Amino acid sequence: MAINKELLEILCCPESRVELRELTPAEIAAVNQQIETGAVKFKDGKPVEKALREGLITVDTQTIYRVDDEIPIMLVEMGIPTEQLTHFKGQGSKA
User: What is the torsional sign of CA 37, 38, 42, 44?
Assistant: First the structure.
C-alpha cells in the first residue's frame, strides 16, 4: 500500500531536512536481503530485526525510514544509514 502523496510531500528527514521518496520494491528487497544477515543497524546502533514492507528514503539516498502499517517512523535514531547497505553504496552525496 502506497503512502499518502500529500503526506509524502510534507515529510522530510528529521535530521537533515532532506526530502523523501518511497523505496521501490527492488530497493526493499535488497535492504531486506541484508537485514536477514543481521548486519543492518539503525542509527542508534541497534540491529534492524524486522524486514521492511514499505519504506522512505531521503532523495540523497543517505537514510531510510521504515513505514509500519502505513505510518512513517520518522525518528532520527530509527533511521537506517545506507552507507552500510551494498545496494546504495556510491549513490547520493553526503551533506
Answer: negative
pTM of the model: 0.89
Q: Checking DSSP bridges between strand 63-68 and strand 20-22, what pairing results, if any?
A: unpaired
Contact 66, 73 (CB under 8 A): yes
pLDDT tens digit sequence for 76-90: 999 999 999 988 865
* 94: its cell numbers: 553526503
- Largest CA-CA distance found in the chain, in angstroms, rounded: 35
Over residues 21-77, the pLDDT tens digits come to 999 999 999 999 999 999 999 999 999 999 999 999 999 999 999 999 889 999 999
> Own/partner pairs for 70-75, CB < 8 Å, 24+ apart?
70/1, 70/3, 70/4, 72/3, 72/7, 72/11, 74/11, 74/14, 75/14
